[in-house]
Specification:
Number of helices: 9
Order of helices and strands: EEEHEHEHEHEEEEEEEHEHEHEHEH
Strand order of the largest sheet: 7-11-6-1-4-5-12
Largest sheet: 7 strands, parallel
Distance between the termini: 64 Å
Number of strands: 17
Strand content: 25-35%
CATH topology of the largest domain: Rossmann fold
């Protein structure tokens, strides 16, 4: 455990793969900038890998002041223990007060290992972060400028705010897409700090023999239009209607967890708390009840159209336009209208 350092920086783990930064790393740089400005400190990013220095410019353009660069051929591909060694070594050296990771498969693997080694807390899958003073009636004191780690709990039925007043650094993983990606400022100045980490033999007890990568079938985060189906679609055959409507509007196909669990479509298409968070210009929800877990992943869409047989379905509370009806009848009518639309 590191003693609380009120002047410590706000750090982001700059996840990258094969020399390309993960979107969530850039998203978190902007959020870290906001938190650091509230605290009056700098933003740092840990960038580890091999031949990745050129990524420092992107991190700085998104709000980072200091990029702590660790380049080593042994870090070319991710392995838990060597990367944990990098994080722990630099945390002990520079004593940041906050360290945030993306809640990606890599981040979910790395962050708990680092938190355990540092003997500090870790809040997983946050959907928001903030800074505030917190009263502690039991200790009869007020904790100044703590990190508020905000996340859904109890299956998404409540929103919990978690604090860590004593064991630092304060650490959290943050879901992809919940923080908007800021506009890069390519004129912004920052410093690249070259760091050297001494590894131990046991850090490489696990050897990487082969890598197999499977490309995602859909990039929901980049889609401007998404047509999503839920459990109300009924079956996999009916889900073809969702694909047809998506094709008619030139959009991507999304799904609720109920549709994925029902085997109607692959998990890559899942939108919601346990899927992808999206902000398209148009989101068409078909046969989706609108449980809070799903709405958490799409409620910031510019326009939401909902189709459901139940007029009391929660999805209508957040929709801009609602159609009460059987999607098996409504969707073909929508497709026909789109096809008959005059060409511009």
């Amino acid at each position: 455990m590191i003693e609380p350092n009120r002047n410590g920086e706000v750090w982001v783990f700059a996840e990258q793969e094969d020399g390309s930064p993960h979107d969530v790393a850039l998203e978190l740089c902007g959020k870290a900038r906001q938190l650091a400005d509230r605290l009056g400190v700098k933003v740092g990013a840990i960038l580890a890998g091999w031949k990745v220095q050129e990524l420092s410019r992107q991190l700085i353009s998104q709000g980072t002041d200091n990029v702590y660069l660790v380049e080593d051929r042994q870090l070319e591909h991710y392995l838990t223990q060597p990367y944990a060694r990098v994080l722990c070594t630099l945390i002990e050296k520079h004593k940041p007060q906050i360290v945030i990771f993306g809640a990606t498969p890599l981040g979910r693997d790395l962050a708990p290992r680092v938190a355990s080694a540092m003997r500090c807390g870790l809040t997983a899958d946050c959907t928001d972060l903030d800074i505030a003073d917190v009263n502690d009636p039991a200790a009869k004191t007020t904790h100044k400028n703590l990190l508020l780690q905000i996340r859904p709990a109890f299956g998404g039925n409540i929103i919990a705010t978690i604090i860590n007043p004593e064991r630092w650094p304060q650490m959290a993983t943050v879901r992809e897409g919940v923080m908007p990606l800021g506009t890069p400022d390519m004129l912004r100045q920052g410093e690249v700090v070259q760091e050297k980490v001494e590894f131990q033999k046991q850090d490489f007890a696990v050897k990487l023999i082969q890598r197999h990568r499977e490309q995602r079938q859909v990039n929901l985060k980049a889609a401007r239009t998404i047509v999503a189906g839920g459990g109300g679609v009924g079956n996999k055959d009916n889900f073809k209607l969702i694909h047809e409507l998506a094709g008619a509007v030139g959009g991507a196909v999304g799904a609720s967890r109920a549709a994925v669990d029902g085997g109607f479509i692959d998990k890559d298409h899942q939108v919601g708390q346990t899927g992808t968070t999206v902000r398209p210009a148009l989101y068409v929800a078909c046969g989706i009840s609108g449980a809070i877990q799903h709405r958490a992943g799409m409620e910031e869409s510019a326009k939401i159209v909902a189709v459901n047989t139940d007029p009391e379905a929660p999805i209508f509370s957040g929709a801009h336009y609602g159609i009460v009806g059987d999607l098996n009848q409504v969707i073909p009518m929508m497709i026909k209208a789109l096809k008959e639309r005059p060409k511009e």
